[in-house]
Amino acid sequence: xxxxxxxxxxxxxxxxxxxxxxxxxxxxxxxxxxxxxxxxxxxxxxxxxxxxxxxxxxxxxxxxxxxxxxxxxxxxxxxxxxxxxxxxxxxxxxxxxxxxxxxxxxxxxxxxxxxxxxxxxxxxxxxxxxxxxxxxxxxxxxxxxxxxxxxxxxxxxxxxxxxxxxxxxxxxxxxxxxxxxxxxxxxxxxxxxxxxxxxxxxxxxxxxxxxxxxxxxxxxxxxxxxxxxxxxxxxxxxxxxxxxxxxxxxxxxxxxxxxxxxxxxxxxxxxxxxxxxxxxxxxxxxxxxxxxxxxxxxxxxxxxxxxxxxxxxxxxxxxxxxxxxxxxxxxxxxxxxxxxxxxxxxxxxxxxxxxxxxxxxxxxxxxxxxxxxxxxxxxxxxxxxxxxxxxxxxxxxxxxxxxxxxxxxxxxxxxxxxxxxxxxxxxxxxxxxxxxxxxxxxxxxxxxxxxxxxxxxxxxxxxxxxxxxxxxxxxxxxxxxxxxxxxxxxxxxxxxxxxxxxxxxxxxxxxxxxxxxxxxxxxxxxxxxxxxxxxxxxxxxxxxxxxxxxxxxxxxxxxxxxxxxxxxxxxxxxxxxxxxxxxxxxxxxxxxxxxxxxxxxxxxxxxxxxxxxxxxxxxxxxxxxxxxxxxxxxxxxxxxxxxxxxxxxxxxxxxxxxxxxxxxxxxxxxxxxxxxxxxxxxxxxxxxxxxxxxxxxxxxxxxxxxxx
Length: 708
Known about the structure:
- The protein is 57% helix and 7% strand.
- It is built from 25 helices and 13 strands.
- The strands form 5 sheets. A 4-stranded mixed β-sheet has the order 3-12-5-4, covered by helices on one side. The protein has a 3-stranded antiparallel β-sheet with strand order 7-6-8.
- A hairpin with a 5-residue loop joins strand 4 and strand 5.
């Protein structure tokens, strides 16, 4: 990397003033960092020097500008292991907020998040992404594709037929003939039959044949046209700046007979296409038709086929589409929210309304309500993760750590607590066993399935992946401690036969584990933060830093976080309310239901994040996702459940089934053995995934808990 300051040059041996560690007593690198920097300086590489900075009282990562253009800006992290074993991690950042978010991803105790919390500069986006956000698809390419043919079969033919029928109706009214003739409905019928490769333009009308004819036959004075949208507004409000005789009668006939039906049909197609995500171009085309095309005077609408060498210069282009399907729309976001999370938000509303209004199961049964409640947890988990990442990226490490520790496990805790409360009220011990199975399933999934799946998917693209073994060792040590502490009461009861361990031991363990978690936070975030060796490099030219346009401000993120948590509690209450019939009528072990469905569904957003990190050859974050969740399960979630019994007697006893103990301990040992050398491939990931499925098979054939 070549450093540059302002417009002047700098000799390779000169040290930048703002990066000089001697210039500020607060800027000190770690021993490993200084040693690696010395080695790099021997080779003339100044770009890997690392230092921290204190700005406005917030510890921020040092941004090292590198010479690169926005088009070649890498959007992934690179981890390089030097000859002496020091792991150097270089990440790119577009602004200070993104630098906070990216650096927090590598720190223990922070929720790993892939999506941007700030709006990316438009000029830095690829042409593929720019096309997603464009209302006018003007890329000239072949129009005969499978997606376009599917549009013709499912939408095109009957939509064109509808326009023909509306045209006939407008002709029968005589007054609405201008809209039903060749000037609008007939032209749009041909357009929507096969809209690809055609453009709709707004042109100025001159010498229109039907103006004088309608004026003579109907006695209507046809004066200067106005934009139909303003006419529609004045028609609805009852106020207009023009006199009544200046309004065209055919306009009102169109607004009463033609436009409402077409608007409803186009709106329905828009909703269906948007929900299917990959056909969002169809949704945009129909939305623009309702809001733009159908509100224009018919003589202003001009349709022509666009040739590959032709540039439409006749007028303003209103609508143009070449492809009905775009596979890249899984990247589409609305105000920073992924389109899938946006589409699943109505599911949350339907779940809450159906669950609390139809309390007697008159409309749907318990199985449907349980499934809807469980599916609603996925988008809510996404919103909670986005809110946590937004708050952490705009705050110092202390506030971020508190928010992550407080709300990082809120998804699982809401379900576990509501299940324990329901079990205590009904005197049913099955709920307690289901909660223990879900806790164990989360632990197994985060230790085996999540990193294993990420290794397999990442290993297909990258032959060998490396990660920071030292930072992973911190999480592994905490995981060993947490698993040992959680299962200590169980081992105590096994040593002394059937004697159940006394409450003091359980409470002692539940108090010590959160203290160990806090010590781990202090170790990784404060005293030994240098073990991550994070270098944040700006991907723009020196002196040109884009300002951060945050999707969610701190207060907005906090409001969304609280609302999502409230909805999460309601969905968890509905899930536990309607789980009893499923458990009673299930043909498989109830342990299996808890280990799989109840444990892994809330973690689906985390699994998606881990896969995305692995595809970008950033396996460190994929591994840390599973390790941090597993540590939070043992050091925060389980102690909270135990301490909750002090305030509400749920009879939750920290004694697990033998199968839970052996499966968890074996999984942790296997994970640490594979992560020992700091590198992996798809074969090692396959081993972890296979072990996970073997354990699932064991749970599948295991008998249900006694009394359930």
